[in-house]
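Complex record, two chains
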Amino acid sequence: MIKSIVITLVNLLFINSIIAQSKIYGTVKGNKNKNLIAASITIVGTYDGTITDSLGKYKITTYEKGQFTVEVKCLGYKTTTQPLYLDNKNVEINFILKEEINELSAVTVTAGSFEAGDKKRTATVLTALDVYTTGGANGDITSAIKTLPGTQQVGEQEGLFVRGGAGYETKQMIDGLVVNNPFFSGAPDIATRGRFSPSLFKGNVFSTGGYSALYGQALSSVLLLESIDMPERSEASASITSVFAGASFQHLAKNKKSSIGINYGYTNLQPYFSVVKQKQTFSIFPTYQNVEANFRIKTKRNGMIKFYSSFSDGKMGLRTIDIDSVTLKNQFELRNNNWYNIITYKENLGKGWKLNTGISFSTNTDKINNKVIDNNNQPTITGKIYIDSKNFILRTKQELTVLRAVAEKRIKGISVVRFGTEYWFANNEYSFNGFKTNFKDRFTSLFAEADIYLTNNLAFKAGSRFENSSLINKNNISPRLSLAYKLGNKGQMSVAYGTFFQKPELDQIMQYNNTVINTGFNKATHYLINYIKNTSLQTFRVEAFYKKYNNLIKTFPDTTVNGNGYAKGFEIFWRDKKTIKFIDYWISYSYLDTKRDFLNYPSTLQPSFATPHTLSIVTKTFILKWKTGFNLTYNFATGRPYYNIVYNNNLSKYEILDEGKTIDYHNLGFSLNYLPNLGKKNAKTFIVLVASVTNVLNSNQIYSYRYSYNNLNKVAVTPTAKQFYFIGCFLSWGVDKTQDAINNNL
Amino acid sequence: MKKIILCLTLFISTSIIAQSDKFNAAMSSSIKEYEAAKTAEENIAIAQKFIRIAEAEKTEWLPYYYAATIKAKMSIMGIGGDKDEVADEAQSLIDKAEALSKNNCEILVIKSMIATAKMIVDPQNRYMEFGTLINKYLAEAKKADANNPRPYILESSNLVNTPEQYGGGCNAAKPIAQKAMELFNSFKPASEIHPNWGKEMVEQILKNCK
């Protein structure tokens, strides 16, 4: 009896579990009836489930009984659930999943911009390390950026000359705040380095056009530099090189919530210029001192307060043969002081709100003492006004205060709106041979933009900007629009349109009674289309653009805004870290067709800072066995036009007396960095030895020509020496800075 | 009658035990499947199975641990999708495991492995961030359980793959591998379904580094 009960029970249980088997099967699809592969299907609360096969089909066998929920998950799609009653039957359930818009899979609006160092890997093009290891760039951000498409190889003036634009048409912003004097002050016809070390920034966005409504006052381009957050750890470092020496200390609090740092640098070119002869002689060898300080504090809500201050003092004096005479020399002496301060505060306010604010103040003073001197280096007066007028003392002081606040609100999905305001107060003082002028400008802007993601594959950015300048007493409104469409297979297309305004350069419109000539904003309209294909190790990008210039300043016959011009062309960029093992290389090619009529141009001309073809090839490799990195950069540009534009008294107008094209530009730069202690576990000091040389092939480089007053003497503008050599030793303690291949002082 | 009651009692208690038996059984069979898995599809399927077990159980770290291990290895081998995305999945799984079991040597070993997976995608730019993490987690793992061979297995494997100039190579790896072997010989996993992998890795290193 008992036996049979037990047997029955056991049998019942056993049979029950055999019979009680349900089959669930069906398909999982996305939009457009696309089969979803490897989507997971789970009967929630049980172990039962499966993944879809290559046809999007699935089949689950389960012994469970009762009320359950089936859950379907697939990356890039919204998770879907469905109730299900299991009672030994076969059920077919077909799922259609909705796409989920998220940052990982969504298209990014990238027309016109190169993002670098951003965590979002679709955008990584150049990082701080890339800047340091670009051969020939000598750790200068601008020089490294010049290997990207859209830029010109202009060597006689600082600045980025982008797509037919002059150097002043590109603005640099640190954390969104415009920087007034981003380059060291220098002598005429010599490009200077940027003031800011690449290691101050975690990333940069280089936009060659069609940029966001958040920024303004740049007709051609913006270089957005984003400062680093907390340093990785505390450390001390020192450097000694052929041209400078420095020391810095950075302290990170134990709780990693705050940090403080100082840096001192001393540059003196006397030893170098004594060994490597320059075409000039020096009355004062260039020397600079630079002190920097910073602190950073993390706030409770993961916001951040950052402060950075940099003071520099520099002097130089150089003598060149005077272009207007055979026996005399021109002596240019400069003393520069620059003080830059920035404090920014960003905060998450909750509920999708973010706030970015900042204040910066900078003051820059240049004292130029220019003299015509004789063979004994004594000042002389010749009685010829065109020579004697070169005896002058010019003192300029430029002060700029910037206030900026931008609020960001996340709306549906990953779409966001941003809006904000800026106020700039500029004070420019000039003293020319004791004659003083002073210009003040109160500049206000209001701006708003929205990034709207319609689907993962389609997004647009629309914005607008209002600006007012008190000095020129004008307003402008500039709309911006860009659209991005994902083509699949990691490729995407973008188009962008926008109008861009910029105040005229002060020296084009200033008068000697503290007022300016009534003109207006210069205007550029950008149209561009691009295709970009990105994987984590390769980037391909091609972009075509058309840019229309209006309201450029004409200085003759009267100063008006009747100047105009255009620029059009296309650019190709290819970066590859994958194909050749251990070699990282990129190639940029730019084609540019541009003409403009501005300033005293007698007609519409190709400006002297633009050439049709520019090519850069950058390669880097690190040979582990030798602990040495080798970096080679080749820049090529076709010749640039030059003009001798002269006023003809008889015809009462400007005319071109002479014109021509410079020879093609070639520059092969090379650098190596040797890391002797790399990988040594107990090494207390981390050492980087750097050697570099520009223009390895010793090519002749001619940037332009200058003409004498009588137009008979034509002198080529060339670099101060054909080549620049650099050797340096960088040390750091407290950290194995293994990959920061070159110390942050360079 | 007594016997019936006894039988019923037995029956009831088995069904209570059954739940954990079911877990153990599912885990053991899944671990076997995982050891046999070769293709990307097989690996995805078995990782998903571990995730289902983890989500059904809610308090067990082991299924998350295995799912993360599979994803980490897939990322390193470069199968089943973008290396970065697969490593990110592994990271989110191991985070869930860690939420259930803190200061766990086995979990820290996998965190180190995931950091390696992230680093090797772009070593030049990522060494600073992930190179530090690799060693940090290994150090924490050793501290969490000094008798566990797996931190040493991973360390010796990392060393073998590092050039000699950088303090790697056989000479550096061999003593660590030997230590791993010693620990392995005395290591007893807490249960059949607890991690016990890596012996072949050490044997291979010792064989190659004679």
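Note: The longest helix of chain B spans residues 2-36.
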